[in-house]
Amino acid sequence: MNNLLKNKKISETPFRLEVLSIFNNYKNAIPLSVIEKDLKSYNRITLYRTIKVFLGKGIIHEITISGEDSNYAICEEDCGTNTHTHNHNHIHFKCNNCGIITCVELEKYPKISLPNYKINQLEIQASGVCSTCNQ
Ligand SMILES: [Zn+2]
Ligand SMILES: [Zn+2]
Ligand SMILES: [Zn+2]
After folding, report:
1. Which of the residues 12, 59, 65, 92 has an alpha carbon 20 to 30 A from that of 31?
2. 29 closest CA partner among 68, 63, 77
3. Residues lining ligand 3 (ion), CB within 5 A?
């Protein structure tokens, strides 16, 4: 995981590695407030810039569920390195019980074609009871 930044051609700084390690500590998507809480010390502007770089390079992706703050989650390894070419075969699941948002892999991601439209990105969101709460 430490090679992730190098693989995506992003220069490693202690701060970027620290932000990355926070993402690795969670198995689910996290909002900015969780990252801020876990950082020892930070500068808001540097944090925003880091998030922007990570989003743009396919390190993390943003999940926006209506009525919620944006959440961020680590990308799949082969994710595109451009904000508009994120390529995920998973859905975003929001648990109505614990409130956690998770990226859930799908064996077969549905393919949708719209005549005369070009789809760059397809996002599927679901809500209900997550596997932990459902036990
Ligand atoms: Zn991605
Ligand atoms: Zn849950
Ligand atoms: Zn995701």
Report:
1. 12
2. 63
3. 73, 103
